[in-house]
């Protein structure tokens, strides 16, 4: 080979290495919720064995009222994960016509059962049942969903003996494990529900996170402009692919909590799941992003197991 040919070859090789590095740099990091959840569950398995060695078998009771198919799937996978970790698992499936008084009696019995450390009544209950009353009836020491007013207060007070709602706790874990620095970051949370949006904002602003937080909601003005401020954008709305590419600051981290079922004739089932973020157009702008499915979803159950272990530890 002539000297000039070798030089040209070296130049081409270097150029191709440079462009592939550039391509890698421009690619977002896909935050793998399944893998992180598996790690959390592995930690749970180890702690379960340690508690059992001390004579404490963690126990979780999951109560489903009615026959909502999506709720039945959630309750089934929660009970299965419990059993897989070696928990004492109670699954109560009550008919849709169960009265509020009957449900409150079930909750009272579970409150009194020493083998049960965590109680979860699957949301949403049938319309004739007042969910708030049921949440308040659960012993706050067993409220592993973290919805009881006493646990909401503990979250605001940053009291670690309280239970943090599982989905936002899962989002924080994803940020932490992915090495995303929240200190001083501008965080925008879209959604102000008690299940996701508000606790998410509280966790981000807490002293161990130190983000500057904006909570946006259905009445916020110029939502795209608010979102463009975000270094960390959390979408918890329930509107398929609402967050578009031009809502996202280049290099932002995007956590998509939304789970929306949309029609897709190309699928055998006729539908597919999608998040609140238009993933295909948003991902190339981000530093990191969670996919749907496989992002936040798997974290919720993992954090529920962690909360149940916390309850078992605290109740003994
Ligand atoms: P929600 O309906 O209780 O709250 C939605 C929030 O979005 C409200 O606060 C509302 O103000 C806001 N909102 C609605 N439309 C808006 C708009 N056009 N612009 C700005 N804000 C708007 O819902 P949620 O329980 O908080 O759940 C939100 C999403 O997260 C849903 O898709 C739900 O399925 C999903 N979710 C996922 C998990 C999980 O495990 N990954 C857990 C809980 C909820």
Along the chain, the helix and strand elements come as HEHEHEHEHHHEHEHEEEEHEH
Shape: globular
Q: What is the number of E strands?
A: 11
**DSSP helix count?**
11
How helix-rich are the residues, as a percent range? Answer: 40-55%
Radius of gyration: 23 Å
Enumerate the spans where pLDDT stays under 50 for 5 or more consecutive residues: none
Which cofactor or ligand species appear?
nicotinamide-adenine-dinucleotide
First-residue to last-residue Cα separation: 77 Å
* SS-based class: alpha/beta
Beta fraction? 15-25%
User: Which strand order does the major sheet show?
Assistant: 1-11-8-7-5-6
> What's the story with the biggest beta sheet?
6 strands, parallel
- Mean of all residue-level pLDDT scores: 94
Layout of secondary structure:
Elements: H1 3-26, E1 29-30, H2 33-53, E2 59-65, H3 69-85, E3 88-94, H4 100-112, E4 118-121, H5 131-137, H6 149-157, H7 166-177, E5 186-190, H8 197-205, E6 212-216, H9 223-228, E7 232-235, E8 253-256, E9 260-263, E10 271-274, H10 279-282, E11 288-289, H11 297-315
Parallel strand pairs: 1-11, 2-3, 2-4, 5-6, 5-7, 7-8, 8-11
Antiparallel strand pairs: 9-10
Helix pairs in contact: 2-11, 3-11, 7-8, 7-11
The structure holds nicotinamide-adenine-dinucleotide.
Residues 167, 190-193, 195-197, 216-218, 220, 223, 236-239, 257-260, 296-297, 300 line the site of nicotinamide-adenine-dinucleotide (NAD).
